Amino acid sequence: LVFSLTLACRCVFQLFYSFFKSLVGKDVVVELKNDLSICGTLHSVDQYLNIKLTDISVTDPEKYPHMLSVKNCFIRGSVVRYVQLPADEVDTQLLQDAARKEAMQQKQ
Amino acid sequence: MFRFQSLDEDCTLEEEDEGLVEEEDEIDQFNDDTFGAGAIDDDWQEEHKRLAELDERDELAAGLGLGGGGLGGEPDLGGTQHSSSSSSSRLPPSAGCLPLPSSLPPLGFSSSSSKLPPPDVEDRPGDGDLAESLARLILEADPAIAGVGAAERPGPPPGSSGSTLPGLHGLDQPRVLQQTPSIPHQHPHHPKLPPGPSASGPPPSSMLSYQQQQHLMRRGTAPMGQVNSHSIWENSMGFGPVSVTPGLVTHMEDSPLMSIIKEVGLPKRPPQGRNDEGRDLSERVPPPRASSPVIGSPPVRAVPIGTPPKQPMSHALNHQNSPLCRGPFPPRVGPVLSQIQRAQLLNSQVAGFPRGGPGPPLLPGGGGFRPFFGGPPPPHGHRMGPPPPHGPPNHTPPIRHNTTHLHPQHRRMLTQRMQSRGGDRGRTGGDRRSRDPYSNLMTQKEKEWVTKIQMMQLQSTDPYLDDYYYQNYYEKMEKRQERERDSSKKEHTTKLITPQVAKVEHTYRPVQFAGSLGKLTVSSVNNPRKMIDAVVTTRTDDEEKREKQVWNKRRQILYTVEKMYSLLLEVQDFEKRFVQTPEEDRDALVEQHKTNTEQLCSSLREKEWDDRVSDEQCVMIMSVRKGKRLISRLLPFLPSPQAAAVVMAIARNLPALAKKDKQDQVLCWLVEPVSTVIQSLSSSSLTDLLQELQGNEGQLATVLHNKFGVTLLYLILSEGERMQSSDPNCQLMDDNRWTELVFSVTRELLSVPSSSLSPPLFTPPNLLSLFSRYVDRQRLELLQDKLQMSTLSR
């Protein structure tokens, strides 16, 4: 039971990791759990869904002036609340399929 | 400074300080282990560098020279001085500066045994005096030191030292002299010496003397502007390690003391000791487990994963760190370059590493590093070439993605994007690279090592499965691009070949120890400990139970749809997997595929034994959005009779379907697969289909009202036309059905108001020719207008 869970966890990570990989180079807006929203180009992502953004700007009112000089940032995956994506870059059907596959894998 | 202090305290033999000293010693040791030599600031390093030189020369001097001896006698002097009031003069005063070069070395050591035993008695009370005189000595030595300069070493053979440092010798007098007054007129600084600290009584000699020494020296430096601290330190330390341990000397213990002093006095430890330790650290293998299950243990490595890469310039390192070795304790610092050394090394080594920061990326699964794949041998075919080189200088700083593992499409997109952006801000970022203070903090090897660890976790035995979304997404994009552009551009047809790790089958066997009672847990990264000892029982009737429980029809439908989806996905992947599996497994795969397809078909039937596709089932499925999607994807995989049946069912129930689709409006998903099916129909089936579509009275009107319906109708008609025009022998015209049907359709088309005629998705071009067969010119024109109008009004 428990051992298979570790393998399954890996699978769960893979889905979104795979998904974000396909979005590298696109513009996204990352909203953090501390309500900071950062707009930038997705530079890279890793298996923990840590995100590196380049050429960032703080969206919404510039309530966070300390970010003015920051061009690139690294965001730890655990602090992300939302990632806003361009809709046309996402293949929802494929995403659904991938999710189904993950579910199947987890069941096994 | 701290280090110096610790050195001092380490060497002390006083019991009262032992506990404290040991703690601090350990702390320092930990400090060094943790931070390495680099944790201490530069000054100290430079001093040690000089020390190294000093010590070398010092060693040359036989028997630590005069200076050492002189200072060695210091504490005594200080002690005697302080308690001069109380103590009686032990030694005959000698006026003036009587250089006693020859007498001094014996003074230093052997004298400690011979001449000083009497003072021993008064040692404790004399400690303060010793400290004071030591301090004084150094103070007095200041002008001398200043005169001597940093470079010159007060460690030459006794004779010369005597000449260079008259002051020092002069100070030796007090040792002999004992009286205070003799000193002041020789050493104008004397009045500055505070008798304060020592007045409190016999303090722990080593600490006090040292502290006093420090204190006084500091005060001494104040007026002496020209004397920099380095020189003071140098010379004081240059007197050999003996100066470091005045406390030691004060104890006047003969042979143990001397042996210690000699030991301490030894300069460099052999560097090999450090080398060995360095090698040890990186080659230490974790102790073998008692029993290691295959899955439970990570692969045993000669060099454990956690060890940093070996430093390439270990010999340079040793030279640099030799001052450290001179400590009285064995060198504890691992083979770690200090910050500065490393930076120097790397700056020379690595040329222009633009933005080393984002370099080792977070990205690609499966790793894009060549050294990493040296281990498990994968097909390296995908080597897409090195990451894009720095663009023209205008592009600085080029954001470097690690693109070795990306799909070629993706990589191309990225570089295009970067070029277009880099051109805008190339100028401003030009000088950023040259001034980046954070570059070269890690060697390339280190970066690769770090990424290697990360990538190991992403090693995938089945990239298609683990990386499903990414792979498929780019495949689709490829296909799309192939369709859009002309196929003459060969560059777009590059395939992505992903590295694959050979799949190793692990059957988990729980660790068992012979003769143990119960299950012992041996946990590791790959098998975390068992929390619950639960046994998995497969309950086959569970599904049925669940189905019974599902009372909501919609939920049931959804459930059915999901089940079918999983089957469908399996079927979809069949081809890909077929190509990949080895020969012997292929039969099994085909079997599996057949079963899947069967199951899919049977799910469309209402009852197991009923051979035909059930209308109701189809409609039910299609009442949900997901279901429509499912059917549209399922159709290509169904065998043709079933597919035809499904299409029939659709046509038959179109009005109902149209009604249910009012909200979603996704029936049009079905157009493509349906058209494929239609094109494979026989003429009679086609006629049947058209008939079904028309159905009962009034059905056609609703059909026409719906976009999909219209499109479907057109498809059918177009197909019929195609059949007729291409194959003169076609049986379409054999019976009148077709003609009649077409007639009724045209009638309907004409009669229906344009507003209720929904524009189709597309209008097949051959409709006109079709209609021309059946209707007269006038009507044809009317139809044309209507249809065109409807097409325009889309």
TrEMBL record, chain A:
InterPro entries named in the record: LSM_dom_sf, Sm, Sm_dom_euk/arc, U6_snRNA_Lsm2
Residue ranges of every copy of the Sm domain listed in the record: 15-89
UniProtKB keywords: mRNA processing, mRNA splicing, Nucleus, Ribonucleoprotein, RNA-binding, Spliceosome
Biological processes annotated in GO: mRNA splicing, via spliceosome
Gene3D superfamilies per the UniProt record, alphabetical: 2.30.30.100
Function noted in UniProt: Plays a role in pre-mRNA splicing as component of the U4/U6-U5 tri-snRNP complex that is involved in spliceosome assembly, and as component of the precatalytic spliceosome (spliceosome B complex). The heptameric LSM2-8 complex binds specifically to the 3'-terminal U-tract of U6 snRNA.
This protein's name: U6 snRNA-associated Sm-like protein LSm2
TrEMBL record, chain B:
Regions of compositional bias (Acidic residues) in chain numbering: 7-24
Family under the similarity heading: Belongs to the PAT1 family.
Low complexity bias: start-end ranges: 77-115, 160-171
InterPro entries membership: Pat1-like, PAT1_dom
The entry's keywords: Cytoplasm, Nucleus, Phosphoprotein, RNA-binding
A molecular function (GO) term: RNA binding
Span of domain mRNA decay factor PAT1: 513-657
Region (Disordered): 1-24, 61-228, 263-316, 374-441
Source organism, top-level taxon: Eukaryota
Name of the protein described by the UniProt record: Protein PAT1 homolog 1
Biased composition (Gly residues): 64-76
Residue stretches of biased makeup (Basic and acidic residues): 274-283, 422-436
Residue ranges with Basic residues bias: 402-414
Location of the protein in the cell: Cytoplasm, P-body; Nucleus speckle; Nucleus, PML body
A Gene Ontology BP annotation from the UniProt entry: P-body assembly
GO cellular component, as recorded: nuclear speck; P-body; PML body
UniProt key word Phosphoprotein: yes
PANTHER family for the chain: PROTEIN PAT1 HOMOLOG 1, TOPOISOMERASE II-ASSOCIATED PROTEIN PAT1
Bias-annotated ranges (Pro residues): 193-205, 374-396
